[in-house]
Design a protein that fits this description.
There is one protein chain. It is built from 18 helices and 12 strands. It is an alpha/beta fold. The strands form 2 sheets. The protein has a 9-stranded mixed beta sheet with strand order 1-2-6-5-4-3-7-8-9, with helices on both faces. A 3-stranded antiparallel beta sheet has the order 10-12-11. Helix 17 packs across helix 18.
Length: 369
Amino acid sequence: MDPKIYWIGFNYVKGIGAVRLQALLDAFNGDLQAAWEAPYDQLRQAGLSTRLVEGVIKVRAELDLERIWQRTAAAGIQVLTWQDESYPRLLREIYQPPPVIYLRGEILPEDETAVAVVGTRRITAYGRQVTEELASVLARHQVTVVSGLARGTDASAHQAALRAGGRTIAVLGSGVDRIYPPEHRRLAMEIAESGAIISDYPPGTPPESANFPPRNRIISGLSLATVVVEAGETSGALITANFALEQGREVLAVPGLITAPSSKGTNRLIHSGARPLLSPEDVLEAINIRVVNTQRMARRLLPVDELETRLLDIMGEGSMAADELSFLSGLPIEKVSATLAMMELKGLIRNAGGMSYISLRDENSEYRI
């Protein structure tokens, strides 16, 4: 059986998230099958509480993992785990990323240049106009639009991106086979054809209210920046903005009338330091679209070569000075410096100051491109 079925199995156990799954991987030398089949005492020794061990035992007695795997595959649902090269890089970078995500459609390397567009379900004519213009401009600049498929702002953002011929990703607070709201089923199908529908909840999970704040964390985690178009004082879009701030991502808010309930949340974000979005170009500037396009062009015209790969291997995941790279590689400093300059242009590394560089290669994928 595919080892991913054990990731799915633990995903069904309430209380087993990123921290506890990593503890199981550590305790069982990366073998989740061994963890899934482990007796009570071994699970306790792995650090699980009595309640969680009982939960694991109960779930594995109830689940037919092989049948679940067959149904998932038959439904055209892909399963990505931390161990997959195609697991989204930006999402992997956040604190405690979801161990498993399910998707319909396809996530491509270009989806790393993504912006979340979120807001109220009770969208106004003003909010709709701004959302549609913003999503259209992003799509025309090959920026993927990420949102949550909800009524109002989310749906407008997805639809505008599709009309402009762009890519869009919808993150659900339910299983990817349980589209919510139901009237967005056709829209969801269109999104899956030109992007992806994703969730960290197993297929069959209903859209419960407790599922949506974690879903908002994934929306911001997939995005370089989050734009809040309209939001009341208690809007879920503000939760997305807060997650984006925690993740070190850009947050922009669309200013509105101080008397409009739908703009109270966005105006407060601006008052608290969020960047006001006065035109779609503001978000393009926030994500350095010119630099992104330069890197795209450089990688297209000058693919990664053997020397660059060698230096990336030496650098690993930390920072390293040019002279140290020269010593470890046995190459002249002039050659190393010239290669590092080209690698920085391609977006493979970044200058950490003092002639030190940090690799942007992901530990489980080839390059962050």
